Each structure stands twice: as structure tokens, then as C-alpha cells.
Amino acid sequence: MSSSSSSNNKNPSIVEIRPVTDKESLWEFLRIAAHEDDVEVVKSNPDLVKYVQDFDNSNDTASSTSKSAGDVGVVAFLNEDDDDSKSSNDEPVGSAWGAILDDDPTKRGYGHVRDDIPELAIGVSSQHQGKEIGTALLQQIFVDMQKKLIPGISLSCRDDNAAALQLYQRLGFERVKGTEVSNRIGGCSFTMLRLFDED
């Protein structure tokens, strides 16, 4: 579940990356990731709502065997004035989070690979896309997941989302063969996987 953009014309140092502390703030970024116009549409879709409802990053113990041990999330905030934006330093401009949604096959998300690998959702506010915020979010979530001994992270990407696909490939995600499916809007989506044992 993803909506991000990459560009080399801005420096990711314009943002501060912090852990997710307010799960409610994720709804807006899930709306962006799902390419929806209304948060209420997302909250009423059982295939989407689990990306926020099932997320719980309160367990930060690497050795834990609970489902939430695989949940990690980060939020981007501006740490300096951005002339192109009306965002304040206390307003999040992007978020990335991974969750092990469920070991019940009927309740898994779009990007499921295996039960010990969280599924990623990422969204960056439209006015801040192209500023390497997605890169900064993903790089931090990789670090945080490896500290918890999480083996990797997966996601679902639309085949027409060229900017996101370029970002994911640049950061080491690989397309999982045989995962192409029709998505909610009638296009094609596929799963991508980033394993950490290769780092």
C-alpha cells in the first residue's frame, strides 16, 4: 500500500523523522497511499482499515513473539521553514509504517509475503512529494526494523505508480514474481519485498 515520489532536487534533512505516537494520524497517510479522496472512504473499507486498526508499535522488544513485535512506524515533520508549504513544524507531512496484519489468510493485506514480514503503508502529503521525504521515512523504518530483528518488509505497488516503483527499487525492494493482481480501481498491482539480511 503505497504512494510516494522520489526526486533528487531536495534534501531529506528538511524533515525530522520520529516514531509514530498517535495512531489516528495514520488515517490521512493511508488515504494518500490508497489514492482515495476521502478518509471516510478508507475507514469504511475493511481491506484498508486494518492497516491502521491492526497497527500497534507499543511493543519494541526484539525477542517478543507477539504479533505487534513486527509493527514499526515513523512520521516525518518539517524541521525548518519550507517556503512551498503552509505546514507547521508540528504537522506531519508523511508517514511509513509496517504491520503484521494477521496470520489468518482471509485478513491479510495487499502485500503479504509471509507471516513474519510486516506489510508497509507509506504516504507523503502531495505538497511535499518529490522532496526525498519518502526516502527518509523508508531508510529510518529499515533501521528500526533491523533493530527489532525483523527479517524484511513487503508492500503492494500499482504498476502505474512509476515514481513509487523507482523509489522502492532504488532502496532495494524487488518485485515478487507471480503476485500480480487486479486492484480496487481495475488496474494491476504487485507485491515487492525488501529483505534485510542482505545489508
Attribute tags:
five-stranded mixed β-sheet; 199 residues; 5 helices; alpha+beta
Blueprint (SSEs and pairs):
Layout: E1 2-3, E2 15-19, H1 26-33, H2 39-43, H3 46-53, E3 72-78, E4 92-99, E5 119-124, H4 133-147, E6 152-158, H5 162-170, E7 174-175, E8 181-182, E9 188-195
Question: What features would you describe in this structure?
Answer:
By secondary structure, the protein is an alpha+beta fold. Helices cover 23% and strands 24% of the residues. The chain is built from 5 helices and 9 strands, in the order E-E-H-H-H-E-E-E-H-E-H-E-E-E. It has a 5-stranded mixed sheet with strand order 1-5-4-3-2, sandwiched between helices. It starts with a strand and ends with a strand. Residues 5-11 have low confidence and may be disordered.
